[in-house]
């Protein structure tokens, strides 16, 4: 481990075993005790803060979805979707369970807007995903009483209706070269 301590005209190099002292010379070139010439010293010493500016002093070019807290983004987008009134909400939203692993329907009356906003965020981050992927994302633990719990996928009908509603808003679009069976979706955020 070598480090350099800088004082007036003397530079001391130290390492594990001992010290080697370099005594000042002419024209910023240092001459050691054994007469060898060393590289010139950098006299334009700058503090570390100017050499490596912190991230807070740099200007960032913009903010993406990855830079924002995901809960705040989903809530804000859900509020925007509800406020715009363009998202087509099915009639059965107050009666449905979101998967076989759920015991009750969602307690939040705006759950469809929140699910749509969350789906748009997932599609923006992941790229191609369809109904099957959404059921895996929104699945959960199925409790089997005294038997061990197992993973259970979410409702396919809910995932399909959310994707169809978002496609009508043109917030997502089908893959241009994908087949109908693959049902790939890509997020295109226009907001």
Automatic annotation (TrEMBL):
Gene Ontology CC terms, in alphabetical order: cytosolic small ribosomal subunit
Record-annotated membrane-spanning stretches: none
Coiled coil: none
BP terms from Gene Ontology: ribosomal small subunit assembly; translation
Domain of life: Eukaryota
GO function terms (MF aspect): RNA binding; structural constituent of ribosome
UniProt KW keywords: Ribonucleoprotein, Ribosomal protein
Family designation: Belongs to the eukaryotic ribosomal protein eS19 family.
This protein's name: Small ribosomal subunit protein eS19
Protein source organism: Scophthalmus maximus (Turbot)
């Amino acid at each position: 481990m070598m480090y350099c301590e800088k004082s007036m005209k003397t530079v001391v190099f130290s390492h594990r075993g001992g010290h080697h002292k370099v005594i000042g010379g002419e024209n910023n070139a240092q001459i050691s005790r054994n007469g060898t010439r060393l590289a010139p010293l950098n006299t334009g010493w700058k503090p570390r803060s100017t050499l490596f500016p912190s991230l807070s002093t740099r200007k960032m070019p913009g903010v993406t979805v990855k830079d924002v807290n995901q809960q705040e983004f989903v809530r804000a987008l859900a509020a925007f979707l509800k406020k715009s009134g363009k998202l087509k909400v099915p009639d059965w939203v107050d009666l449905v369970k979101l998967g076989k692993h759920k015991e009750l329907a969602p307690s939040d009356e705006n759950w469809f807007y929140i699910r749509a906003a969350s789906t748009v965020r997932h599609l923006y981050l992941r790229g191609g995903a369809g109904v099957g992927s959404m059921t895996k994302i929104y699945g959960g633990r199925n409790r089997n009483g005294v038997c061990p719990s197992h993973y259970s996928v979410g409702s396919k009908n809910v995932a399909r209706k959310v994707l169809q509603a978002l496609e009508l808003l043109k917030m997502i679009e089908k893959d241009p070269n994908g087949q109908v069976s693959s049902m790939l979706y890509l997020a295109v955020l226009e907001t």
